[in-house]
Amino acid sequence: MSKVRIQHTRALGYCRKGVKKFFERHNIDWDTFIKEGVPEEALLNTNDALAIKVVENKKKMDGD
Predict the structure, then answer these.
(1) Secondary structure class of 38 (helix, strand, coil)
(2) pLDDT tops 90 at residue 11
């Protein structure tokens, strides 16, 4: 399973504070994200345009 990590959000210029608030709002575990990343599906299931952009960016960065 492919995971999204903090570097995928940073590459888009998303600030840590804003990403953390997003995770809290969508009940996605922040500590897990920082330590090991979260599955792409966790972000895609939010149906949020910016989260989808992160997943797309992750695929470009990682060559998925």
Answers:
(1) strand
(2) yes
The per-residue pLDDT for range 23-55, each reduced to its tens digit, is 999 999 999 999 999 999 999 999 999 999 999
- What is the token pair recorded at 38? 């979260």
What letter represents residue 7's amino acid? Q
Q: What is the pLDDT of residues 15-25, one digit of tens each?
A: 999 999 999 99
Please name the residues in contact with 26: beta carbons below 8 A apart, sequence gap of 6 or more. 46, 48
Cα pseudo-dihedral 36, 37, 41, 44, rounded to 10: 170
Give the Cα-Cα-Cα angle 34, 49, 17 (nearest 5 degrees).
35
- Amino acid letter, residue 56: E
